[in-house]
TrEMBL record:
Pfam family for this entry, one: PDDEXK_1
Lineage, top ranks: Bacteria, Bacillati, Bacillota, Clostridia, Eubacteriales
MF annotations from Gene Ontology: 3'-5' DNA helicase activity; 3'-5' exonuclease activity; ATP binding; double-stranded DNA binding
Origin species: Clostridium perfringens
Name of this protein: ATP-dependent helicase/nuclease subunit A
Superkingdom of source: Bacteria
Family to which this protein belongs: Belongs to the helicase family. AddA subfamily.
C-alpha cells in the first residue's frame, strides 16, 4: 500500500507549470513530498522528464546524498513491479548524472565546464580554509606595509580611529569583516561603493527617503505605540476612581502629546525631531497611599506612566543624542574615512584574488561569484542579462527544485534566477522550506527572500503559487499544543518576522494510538496500568538565589569559585533522566517505536539534550551526568587540541622544527616516549640556570657534566638526542603526513595510546591529525615550520576542534548537541537546557555594523577631540540588526521545540526567581490580549524569559503568577498542559552529597567473610597494618603548599576563636558581642545577584591586570578596553556588564593611581598580577610543632601580588580590594589584610633584593588608598 498523502501534499506533488513555494512546517514530510514530486515527474505522464533535466539544490552534501538514495530506492522498487519498463531503466541509468547537489557543487561543475570563459587554469583546486586564512593574513600585512610607506593622511586617520593601541589587528578584522560580508552578495564592489556614497550627504532634507531612515521610523513608531498603550492603560485605571483622579491631570495631555508625535513622524523625520525636542512630562501629581482604595492600582498607574515617560526620554536623549544638523555633519565627516576603508577592502579583495590565481586555488566564495560571472552578460546600457551558458541551462532544466529555501542568500537567489525560467514564460522553480526554521543568519542566509514570496504568491492557480503544509506527522498532540501556545503568544512580524496565527499553527498529523495490550512489548502486557507515556511539558527552573550559602570572605571567591550554575542545571537534568529511566513509583516510561509498531520501554538513546551553544556547557553536562550513571555523548566541537595525545605529538613537532623551546621540550621529555622525571628536569636545570634545556642536554651527551650527573640520566639524554637528530633529518625531506605517521610508528606512541583509557578515541584523534597533515600537503604551503603555523592558525581561527567521532547512531547513550545540529532530526524525548542563558548581542557593540539593505553603520569619530558617538544611521542599523538577532533566536527556539516527538522537558536558571516572575508578569499584564506585546518580547533576555512571559497567561501558570504577584487575564481556551518546578541551589547540593555517600560503601561492613582461624590471623595482620601510626603524625596536618589567602584565613580563624572564648568568658559585655558579629543574619541579607561580590572582585582584578595603561584617562577609553576583552572572549558578555568603569577610573585618578601611571609613562617598571612561590617556616602555620624536631621544616607559599611599581627611591606595593567596608572602620579593614600584605612585602624584598618602601591597600568600595 502506497503512502496516503494529504490534499495539500498532493497539490505540492502534482502542481506544474508555475513558480511554486511550498511552506512546509516542522514534521510535515517536506522531504518525502519533494522526492515523490521528482519520482512522478520522471516516471509518469506521456513525456516523463529525464532526471538529468532537473536541478535539485539541497543545503548540505548529506541531504543531497540522501535525496539521491531515496530517488534510487523508489525507482528500484518500481522496477521490481515492472522490470521491463524502459522509462524506469533509463532513469536509473541517468541517476548518476543527475544534478542533485548543493549550490557550491553546482557552481563548481559550471566552472569546470566553462573555465575558459573566465580565463581560469583548469588545474585549479579548492583551497583549504586555513590555507586561505594564512594567505589573507600575508596579504593584509603587505597591504598595511605599503599603506604606511605612502604616508597617506586619510589612512593614518583610519588607523587612529579603528586601529588598536599596539597593533593593527582591530583594523585587520574590520577589513576581513567587510570582505566576508560583501562576498555574500552578487555585486560586492558595487554594493560597497553605493553604501559608502550614502555618507556623502549635505542637507537634512536628503535624510528623507533613505532606507535606514524608514527603518528608524518603524522602530520609533513601535516605541510610540507602546508609550501610547501604557498611557491609555494608566488613564483607564485612573478613570475608575478610587482616589487616582489627580493623575489624570498629567495623563490626559501626555496622551495627546504622544499622539502628536505619531502624527509628526508620519509627516517626516524633521517634523518629528522638532516635535520630540519640545516634548516634556511634568511632575506627576502627588497621591498619598492612604487616600486611595487600591494601593496596587496606584502603583500600576504610576509604573505605566513612568515607563511611557522613559520611552520618550530615551528617544530624545539616546537615539537623537545629537541634532539632525549634527547627524548630517557627522556622516559627512565619516565619508573620507569610509571611502578610505572601502578602498582598502577592494584592494585587499583584488590582491587576494590575484594570489589565489597565482596559486591556482579557489575558495567557496569564488565558486558562487565565478559561476555568476559565467552566467551573466551585460547589454549595451550595462544592464544584466543571461549569458549564452545561462540560456542553455534555462532550456535544459525542466524544473529547478530548491530545498531549505529559507536558508538561501542573495547570490544563490541570483544564480537560481539565471539558470531557471522564474522570471520569463513557463516558470519552473519549485521552492520548499519553512521560514520559521531559518536559523543561519550568521552564514548570511536571507529569510526575506522566502517572506517576500510568501506574502506575494497566491494560494490558487497562478504563475506564482504557494501551498501550505502545516500538518505535523512527527509529534504527539501534547507537543503540538505546547508549540502552538508558546509561538502564538510570542512570535510576530516584529519578533520572528512572521505572525504565528491559526494559519501558521501546526496541525496534528501523527497517530500514536492509546497504550493497550495489542501495541506494547510482550514483557509489559501484564503491567498496562503501570506504564506511562507522554505527559505534560515540563519547565524546571534553577533559582540561583535560593538558600545560597554566602562566603564570610568576599575575597575567597577569587580563588575558590562557587559551584557553577551549569553544574546545578546538569543535576536537574540528571534527576529528570533517571526519573524517566527508573521512576521511583516502579512504573515504566514508554515510547512508541515505529519500526516495531509498538510501545517499548524508553532507552537512553531516545533522549537528546539540546543547547543553544555547547561550548563551556557540554563538558560540564557530560561530567555531571556521568556521576548519575547516565551514559552520555557530546560532540563538543572543542577539546581536540587539549587531549594529551595531540599535545604530545605537537610538542614533538615543535622541537623537531626548533629544539630551543623549553616548554615543548619538557612536554616531549616528560611523555612516555622518553619518560624523564621531574627530579631529572631539576638536575638538568641545576647544571646551568641560563641555557636552553636542549643546549644542556647536548653538553651532557658531550661529557661536559659527567661528574655531576648519573649515567642513567646521560643515557636518557643520548637516547633523546639520537632520535631527535634522526627525526630532524627525515623531516627535511619527507611529506608532513608521511612524517607524522612515521613518528607514530617510530615512537610506538600510536600503539601506546591505544592501551590507555578511552584508547580507541585517542587513536582516532591521532588519525585526525594525520588527515589534517594530508590536507596540508595539498596546499601551497610546505614544510614542518609552515605546518606548525598552519595548526596554530587553525587553533586561533576555530578556537578548537571536536575530538574524533567514534560513536555509532545506535549506541545507547544520551546525546548532547546544539539546536543548530539538531535541525532536521527528531527524538522521542527532548530536554531543552540552558534556556536561562542570555542572548548574545556582542556583534551589536562593534564599531561598525553592516546590513545588506541598510548599508554601513559606524560611529562618528573625532580623532583630535578624542570622542566618538553613534551616528543616526548606526542607531537605525543597530535596531534593525537587534530585531533580526531576536527574530532568529525566536526561530531557533521553534526548531528546538519541534524536535520532540513525545516528551519535552525545559530547564533553565535565573538569578532570582521571585524577581524574574515579577518581570514576566509585568510584561504579560501590559499586553491586552492572549499575545505578549512585541515590545515586551523584545525586552526578554533569554528563552526562559520568553517562555516565562507566555506561561503567565496560561491556565497552568499559577505558580509563576503567585510568585510574581501577577494579576493577568488568562488564556483558558488553550489545550496544552504544563508543569512547573523550581529547584534551590542547596537542594541540588544535598542531592549530590547523598548520591556520593550512597556510592561510598564500607567494604568491612559485613564480617560474614571470616571463615577460619587462618582467616582471623590474616584479618588481625591486615588490621594491624592498616592501624599503623606514623611517628611524625603532627606534621601531617601541615600542608606542603599553602596560598597567602589560606594562610590569612587561618590566622583570622584563630583570632576569631580566641575572640569567641573571650565573649563566652564575658557574656555580660553586650557591646563586645555586637562588635564581633559583623554579618547580618542570613534572612536579612540581600538577594543573591547573578554575580557574587567575590566573582565581581575576580573580574575587577582581571581587568586591572589586562587594561592598557595608555587608555585609562577617560571613561569611554576604559569602557572600550572592557569591550575588547569581551570581544576577545577574555570576559563573557555578562562579566563585561558588571565591570564598574567609574570605580576603575577613580583609582587611576587617585594619588596612588597617578603615581603608578607616572612610573609607567616614564619607562620605570610596573608589574601587575605577579605570581610567586617562596618558602616560609612551617611554624608560621602550625605553632604546636616541636621546633627541635621540625625547626628546619619549610612550607611552600604561593600567591599573586596585585601590583607594584618602581619610583626613583624604591618600590611601592599595593593590593586591590573590592570588599564592602563601612566608613570609619578602615583600621579594622587594614588589620584584616595586614598579614597578607606583609607576606607579599617580605616576598618582594627577596625577589627585588631591596626593601619595598611603601605598602598600600586600595579599596574600590571606599574609592581611596589605605597606607599600611
Amino acid at each position: 500500500m502506497g503512502t496516503k498523502w494529504t490534499e495539500e501534499q498532493e497539490l505540492a506533488i502534482n502542481t506544474r507549470k508555475c513558480n511554486l513555494l511550498v511552506a512546509a512546517a516542522a514534521g510535515s514530510g517536506k522531504t518525502a513530498v519533494l522526492v515523490e514530486r521528482i519520482i512522478k515527474m520522471i516516471t509518469e505522464g506521456e513525456n516523463p522528464v529525464d532526471i538529468d533535466k532537473l536541478l535539485v539544490v539541497t543545503f548540505t552534501n548529506a541531504a543531497a546524498s540522501e535525496m539521491r538514495e531515496r530517488i534510487g530506492d523508489a525507482i528500484s522498487k518500481a522496477l521490481e513491479k515492472d522490470p521491463s519498463s524502459e522509462v524506469l531503466q533509463r532513469q536509473l541509468a541517468l541517476l548518476n548524472r543527475a544534478s542533485i547537489t548543493t549550490m557550491h557543487s553546482f557552481c563548481l561543475e559550471v566552472i569546470k565546464n566553462n573555465f575558459h570563459l573566465i580565463d581560469l587554469d583548469p588545474g585549479f583546486r579548492i583551497g583549504d580554509q586555513t590555507e586561505c586564512e594564512l594567505i589573507k593574513q600575508d596579504i593584509l600585512a603587505d597591504l598595511f606595509e605599503d599603506m604606511y610607506a605612502k604616508d597617506d593622511e586619510c589612512f593614518k586617520d583610519l588607523v587612529e580611529s579603528y586601529g588598536g593601541s599596539k597593533s593593527d589587528d582591530n583594523l585587520n578584522s574590520i577589513i576581513l569583516k567587510f570582505y566576508n560580508f560583501i562576498m555574500s552578495g552578487p555585486w560586492p564592489e558595487a554594493w560597497l561603493n553605493d553604501k559608502v556614497e550614502e555618507f556623502n550627504i549635505n542637507s537634512i532634507e536628503e535624510l528623507e527617503g533613505k532606507k535606514w531612515i524608514e527603518v528608524l521610523k518603524e522602530s520609533i513608531i513601535l516605541d510610540l505605540n507602546n508609550a501610547y498603550s501604557m498611557l491609555t492603560q494608566a488613564r483607564d485605571i485612573a478613570e475608575m476612581g478610587g482616589g487616582l483622579e489627580p493623575y489624570l491631570v498629567n495623563i490626559y495631555p501626555e496622551i495627546i502629546q504622544v499622539e502628536e508625535l505619531r502624527i509628526a513622524l508620519n509627516e517626516g523625520i524633521v517634523k518629528f525631531y522638532n516635535k520630540l525636542m519640545g516634548a516634556s512630562f511634568g511632575r506627576l501629581k502627588s497621591v498619598r497611599k492612604a487616600s486611595v482604595d487600591d494601593e496596587r492600582a496606584l502603583e500600576k498607574t504610576k509604573s505605566l506612566r513612568d515607563e511611557s515617560k522613559k520611552i520618550i526620554e530615551n528617544l530624545r536623549d539616546n537615539v537623537f543624542e545629537t541634532s539632525l544638523e549634527e547627524a548630517v555633519l557627522g556622516m559627512k565627516k565619516m565619508y573620507p574615512l569610509m571611502k578610505c576603508l572601502s578602498g582598502l577592502v577592494i584592494e585587499f579583495s583584488n590582491r587576494y584574488r590575484d594570489k589565489k590565481r597565482e596559486k591556482d586555488i579557489l575558495d567557496f566564495n569564488d565558486l558562487e561569484h565565478l559561476c555568476l560571472e559565467i552566467l551573466i552578460d551585460k547589454d549595451e546600457e550595462g544592464n544584466i542579462k543571461p549569458s549564452q551558458v545561462a540560456l542553455e541551462f534555462k532550456d535544459k532544466f525542466e524544473e529547478v527544485l530548491v530545498d531549505e529555501y529559507q536558508d538561501s542568500n542573495t547570490i544563490q537567489e541570483t544564480i537560481v534566477g539565471m539558470v531557471s525560467r522564474r522570471d520569463v514564460e513557463n516558470p519552473n522553480v519549485f521552492m520548499v522550506g519553512d521560514v520559521k526554521q531559518s536559523i543561519y543568519k550568521f552564514r548570511q542566509a536571507n529569510p526575506e527572500l522566502f517572506l517576500e514570496k510568501y506574502i506575494n504568491y497566491r494560494e490558487f492557480e497562478d504563475s506564482n503559487r504557494k501551498i501550505m503544509l502545516y500538518k505535523n506527522f512527527r509529534s504527539r498532540e501534547e507537543i503540538i499544543n505546547g508549540v502552538n501556545y508558546i509561538f502564538k503568544t510570542l512570535m510576530s512580524n516584529t519578533v520572528g518576522e512572521l505572525e504565528y496565527d491559526e494559519k501558521e499553527a501546526l496541525n496534528l498529523g501523527a497517530s500514536y494510538g492509546e497504550l493497550n495490550e495489542e501495541n506494547v512489548e510482550k514483557e509489559y502486557i501484564d503491567e498496562i496500568e503501570n506504564l506511562k507515556v507522554a505527559g505534560d511539558i515540563e519547565l524546571n527552573i534553577l533559582n540561583k538565589a535560593g538558600n545560597k550559602d554566602y562566603s564570610d570572605d568576599d575575597e575567597l571567591g577569587e580563588e575558590e569559585e562557587d559551584l557553577d550554575s551549569i553544574q546545578l542545571e546538569a543535576r536537574i537534568i540528571g534527576k529528570k533522566i533517571n526519573e524517566l529511566m527508573n521512576p521511583e513509583d516502579g512504573s515504566h516510561y514508554m515510547v512508541f517505536d515505529k519500526d516495531l509498531g509498538k510501545y517499548r520501554k524508553i532507552k537512553y538513546k531516545d533522549i537528546v539534550i539540546l543547547l543553544r551553544a555547547t561550548k563551556n556547557w557540554s563538558e560540564t553536562f557530560v561530567d555531571e551526568l556521568g556521576t548519575y550513571g547516565i551514559p552520555v555523548y557530546a560532540d563538543t566541537g572543542t577539546g581536540y587540541f587539549q587531549t594529551i595525545e595531540i599535545r604530545t605529538i605537537l610538542a614533538l613537532l615543535h622541537i623537531i622544527d626548533n629544539p630551543m623551546q623549553d616548554i615543548y621540550i619538557l612536554s616531549a621529555l616528560r611523555s612516555p616516549i622518553f619518560s624523564f622525571t621531574s627530579e631529572e628536569f631539576a638536575d638538568l636545570r641545576l647544571l646551568n640556570r641560563d641555557k636552553y634545556f636542549f643546549e644542556i642536554i647536548k653538553e651532557v651527551v658531550d661529557g661536559t657534566y659527567d661528574e655531576s650527573i648519573s649515567k642513567d640520566l646521560k643515557g636518557k639524554c643520548k637516547y633523546f638526542l639520537d632520535y631527535l637528530n634522526k627525526w630532524r633529518e627525515k623531516a627535511a625531506y619527507m611529506p608532513i603526513d608521511e612524517f607524522i605517521w612515521f613518528l607514530y610508528s617510530d615512537t610506538s606512541y600510536y600503539g601506546y595510546v591505544g592501551t590507555m583509557p578511552n584508547g580507541v578515541q585517542r587513536q582516532a584523534n591521532l588519525r585526525i591529525l594525520f588527515q589534517r597533515a594530508k590536507q596540508y600537503e595539498s596546499t601551497s604551503f610546505k614544510g614542518l615550520f609552515n605546518f606548525i603555523n598552519f595548526i596554530n592558525k587553525l587553533k586561533k581561527s576555530s578556537g578548537d576542534m571536536g575530538s574524533a567521532k567514534i560513536l555509532g547512531e545506535n549506541e545507547n547513550v544520551v546525546r548532547i548537541m546544539s539546536i543548530h545540529k539538531s535541525k532536521g532530526l527528531e527524538f522521542p524525548v527532548v530536554i531543552l537546557g540552558g534556556t536561562g542563558k542570555q542572548f548574545n548581542k556582542m556583534d551589536l557593540r562593534e564599531d561598525i555594523l553592516l546590513h545588506e539593505t541598510l548599508g554601513i553603520g559606524t560611529n562618528c569619530i573625532d580623532v583630535k577631540k578624542r570622542i566618538k558617538y553613534d551616528t543616526l544611521q548606526k542607531h537605525a542599523i543597530k535596531k534593525k540588526c537587534e530585531l533580526e538577532v531576536l527574530s532568529e533566536e525566536m526561530r531557533i527556539l521553534y526548531v528546538a521545540f519541534t524536535r520532540a516527538k513525545e516528551k519535552l522537558i525545559i530547564t533553565g536558571a535565573v538569578s532570582d526567581l521571585e524577581k524574574s516572575c515579577e518581570n514576566w508578569c509585568k510584561s504579560s499584564a501590559s499586553s491586552e490580549d492572549n499575545r505578549i506585546n512585541p515590545v515586551n518580547v523584545l525586552k526578554g533576555k533569554s528563552y526562559l524569559d520568553w517562555i516565562g512571559m507566555a506561561l503567565t497567561k496560561h491556565k497552568d501558570g499559577d505558580a509563576i503568577r503567585n510568585i510574581g504577584n501577577g494579576d493577568i487575564t488568562l488564556n483558558l481556551d488553550d489545550k496544552s498542559n504544563w508543569s512547573f518546578k523550581s529547584f534551590d541551589r542547596s537542594e541540588l547540593l544535598e542531592t549530590n552529597n547523598n548520591k556520593k555517600e550512597k556510592n561510598n560503601i564500607d567494604i568491612f561492613e559485613s564480617n560474614n567473610w571470616i571463615e577460619s582461624k587462618k582467616d582471623i590471623k590474616e584479618v588481625i595482620e591486615i588490621r594491624n597494618r592498616l592501624g599503623f601510626k606514623y611517628k611524625y603524625i603532627e606534621s601531617c596536618n601541615t600542608p606542603s603548599n599553602i596560598s597567602v589567602t589560606e594562610l590569612k584565613r587561618a590566622h583570622q580563624e584563630e583570632e576569631f576563636m580566641q575572640e569567641s572564648y573571650n565573649i563566652i568568658d564575658n557574656e555580660s559585655n553586650e557591646e563586645n558581642k555586637k562588635e564581633k558579629i559583623k554579618r547580618k543574619p542570613r534572612f536579612m541579607e540581600e538577594r543573591q545577584e547573578e554575580f557574587s561580590a567575590a566573582k565581581k572582585g575576580t573580574i575587577t582584578h582581571f581587568v586591572m591586570q589586562h587594561i592598557d595603561l595608555d587608555k585609562v584617562t577617560y571613561i569611554d577609553e576604559i569602557r572600550e578596553e572592557v569591550l575588547k576583552m569581551v570581544k576577545k572572549e577574555l570576559l563573557t558578555e555578562e562579566e563585561g556588564k558588571v565591570v564598574n568603569v567609574f570605580k576603575i577610573q577613580k583609582f587611576f585618578k587617585s594619588d596612588l593611581g597617578k603615581r603608578m601611571l607616572s612610573s609607567y609613562k616614564s619607562g620605570k617598571k610596573v608589574y601587575r598580577e605577579l605570581p610567586f612561590i617562596t618558602e616560609i617556616p612551617s611554624s608560621i602555620i602550625e605553632k604546636n610543632l616541636d621546633p627541635k624536631i621540625y625547626g628546619e621544616e619549610k612550607v611552600r607559599l604561593q600567591g599573586i601580588i596585585d601590583a607594584f611599581f618602581e619610583e626613583e627611591d624604591g618600590y611601592v606595593l599595593l593590593d586591590y580590594k573590592t570588599d564592602y567596608v563601612k566608613e570609619g572602620e578602615e583600621e579594622d579593614f587594614i588589620n584584616k589584610y595586614k598579614i597578607q600584605i606583609n607576606l607579599y612585602k617580605d616576598t618582594l624584598n627577596k625577589i627585588l633584593g631591596e626593601e619595598v618602601k611603601e605598602t598600600y591597600l586600595y579599596s574600590f568600595y571606599l574609592e581611596k588608598e589605605l597606607k599600611i
